Prior knowledge:
Layout: H1 3-23, E1 29-32, E2 35-38, E3 72-75, E4 81-83, E5 87-93, E6 108-115, E7 120-122, E8 126-129, E9 134-140, E10 145-155, H2 157-165, H3 168-174, E11 177-184, E12 190-198, E13 206-208, E14 219-221, E15 233-238, H4 240-248, H5 253-260, E16 264-265, E17 273-277, E18 306-309, E19 312-315, H6 325-331, E20 336-341, H7 343-356, E21 367-370, E22 375-381, E23 392-393, H8 400-406, E24 414-419, H9 429-449, E25 454-458, H10 471-474, H11 476-490, E26 496-499, H12 502-506, H13 518-532
Parallel strand pairs: 4-17, 20-22, 20-24, 24-25, 25-26
Antiparallel strand pairs: 1-2, 1-8, 3-5, 5-9, 6-7, 6-10, 7-18, 8-9, 10-16, 10-17, 11-12, 11-15, 12-14, 13-14, 15-23, 18-19, 21-22
Amino acid sequence: xxxxxxxxxxxxxxxxxxxxxxxxxxxxxxxxxxxxxxxxxxxxxxxxxxxxxxxxxxxxxxxxxxxxxxxxxxxxxxxxxxxxxxxxxxxxxxxxxxxxxxxxxxxxxxxxxxxxxxxxxxxxxxxxxxxxxxxxxxxxxxxxxxxxxxxxxxxxxxxxxxxxxxxxxxxxxxxxxxxxxxxxxxxxxxxxxxxxxxxxxxxxxxxxxxxxxxxxxxxxxxxxxxxxxxxxxxxxxxxxxxxxxxxxxxxxxxxxxxxxxxxxxxxxxxxxxxxxxxxxxxxxxxxxxxxxxxxxxxxxxxxxxxxxxxxxxxxxxxxxxxxxxxxxxxxxxxxxxxxxxxxxxxxxxxxxxxxxxxxxxxxxxxxxxxxxxxxxxxxxxxxxxxxxxxxxxxxxxxxxxxxxxxxxxxxxxxxxxxxxxxxxxxxxxxxxxxxxxxxxxxxxxxxxxxxxxxxxxxxxxxxxxxxxxxxxxxxxxxxxxxxxxxxxxxxxxxxxxxxxxxxxxxxxxxxxxxxxxxxxxxxxxxxxxxxxxx
Length: 534
């Protein structure tokens, strides 16, 4: 262990020990950005806990929740000047609208330190929820300048209880998927009918369009027209308006009101800020001695793994290369990149195709072969469920396990990038896990045939929260539960590499979006290409 890493480790441990002494009780869990390490309950029960070891907050008890303008944000170890590589500990005291301290924890908070121009930002090393309205976050200082504190209330505790109470059956019943069935006769006669589809049969008779071996349950009502058979399914789409109205009926008006108060910045005045100067150990975070980022296995937990420095994403343990178009074309010579999954995978595919390489359009926008560079690029959307508003052709979809088993050639220079989260995370966690396990099994078979193939799994990312009751299935908290499952499934195989963009989007400068803005997307692609193009 280098002196710098040892020094940082000692500071972190010391800060957490001191903070525990300050509050004189043991936390029930230490949360390191989603990775919960359970501790035995300490002998000192929080004085304002209201019997927190035994009391359960039920969904119908939405009486008070943490507010953004009354809660307290302060520095535990305040100083006029800090040094690079030192620790800062932030204390948050959640308060209700009348100014009283919350008697319980469980708020879903988002925190960062940041500097405005040029933009730099980092998430916490550790985050402690004391379950009595008090939270602590520790940060390692990585750059010089004026540093500001940002705390955002993503969801209060009562909303988390609401999200936990939503059932699989409620979601499945609320989603309105439309299937278009079309039969064309040789004499020119055409029969068309639209029916409702979903993860379970809606009525009898129905069409079973499931792919059981890839855990792809899918059913559509049978067309009333006898000329149309179950084989005539041609198009699909999702009725977001009707689905949102049905989702809203799953919760009470009070719960809905609380749900809409999302991603609200704390406005405690004044929010802390401080000066950071060079230290005797290092003047700033330098990358010159770090190796280039290479293929790394999927981690088991979720933690802060890097930070933005002057607008550039910098992992802690490696450095990235920024790629201009000419460098991308040169890098991808004699390589094939296959993007499988949702629209976040499509976004990466399209950006490379449109802005980074010069490929002739061969009439298939989802597959390009660049003859000059002998480069192949492909995107394929995963199988149902797909929440796509405009009608799409069934031929655009493919269960990823089937694609890998039946159509995928592996070998040296072949890179498969998987992004599987936005449409597949449901309250019943077994559905998402089983779908991922079917993909994992197909990967195992491919690597047995062609072990030189590179598999890269992309993490989920933070997204916008401006879609009303749809937050019941698309909230960042819901995505976080899926992210834990994804890492658990793929972290068991060191042959599978990871593109971690979760903590990158947590502290990004641009507004949150399910499809990250270009400034963040460029950092993601630089990370991906640095791994591939060494």
